[in-house]
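Illustration: Nucleotide sugar dehydrogenase.
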Amino acid sequence: MRIAVVALGKIGLPLAVQFADAGHEVVGVDISDELVSLVNEGKEPFPGEARLQEKLSELVPEGRLRATTDYAEAIPGADAVVIVVPLFVNDATWEPDFGWMDSATASLAEHLTAGTLVSYETTLPVGTTRSRWKPLIEKISALREGVDFHLVFSPERVLTGRVFEDLRKYPKLIGGLSEAGARRARDFYEAVLQFDDRPDLPRPNGVWDLGSAEAAELAKLAETTYRDVNIALANQFALFADTVGIDIYKVIEASNSQPYSHIHRPGIAVGGHCIPVYPRLYLSTDGEAEVVRAARKLNASMPERFVQQAESLLGGLSQQRVVVLGASYRGGVKETAFSGVFPTVEALKARGAEVTVHDPLYSDAELRDLGFTGYHFGEPVDLVIIQADHSDYSAVGPADLPGVKLVIDGRNITDAGLWSGVPRLVVGAGGASEFPRA
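Result:
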């Protein structure tokens, strides 16, 4: 097959590589000249994706994968077009911002030819594929969906850093606007993906047809919103546990020993491209989902709550030297999308603190580009807030942070034995150690 992939980001490029590695001719489209040039040179444009460079080094010289900024070069004659363009959410209104996706859809529609399967993998509000993309593509292309081309929704279900592994591990969900479109999507994804044996699943791993685009859209929103709501519940339990001197981690471990309990872990922030965003996409079509709304608000409030605790315990933060450990949204991943570092630093600066940031995956220059001043172990500091669970931080102790008066561990990653004599607060662990209880 000849396949076009629209948007070569941290999901789109590995997808394009996967399709080419399965033996197909793949053309990737992206608006970035620099990214396109790097791909055509066989160089990974972003680090951290397992096996990506290895596969690029093989596929690009063989001519199985190339990139372009020109839709006219990629779309005409394609057997399938896969769209992975980002969808943003307005921070103030929580409404989706379709700007980039509308533009990409219009561009592909201008060059769409008959017989093409169009698959959206970007997570969408329920109903978007049918009510927004179908009429837009038909209007611009003058082609009829279900007759001249087929349109489906098939959500990506992978994490950056392990895309190729996850593509094999999880069922590929599809939902068409017609039975014929669903059959085309099944044939396509079975031709480009391979699946691990999963005896734990209720049916064989592979391509799962959910019967409609709306069902597939909701499936992706549901699985991610579940995580946000579950984390919010864990955070709620942790906040209460601190008021009564209970270690919530022991409680969660005990609760989860029963097979119907799957409580997640509390923490200072919920970051990444997915969990903070997709509940808001769900709310855009289900305004009555108060459980989802309350959970999102609670999780978003956690950085401010941690900073308030630090302010209370230290008697103020004005001119206090503070280091936030971790710019990434999660440990081991060089990605700051919706990272808790941003609201944490903002809350600290609002209280007059002198804030620096450390992350083993980022250079000082890269931290500056993010708006932060880099910290180096050994420099004097008053307060430490651990925001990301990088494995390096499990071995950090007072000797690395001269003068430290308080450590707030937002990820429960530090070794209590290393912090003897220094006040240490872990959310849900029963309150700050070394501080007298009221």
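Reading the tokens back as a structure: The first strand starts at residue 2 and ends at 6.
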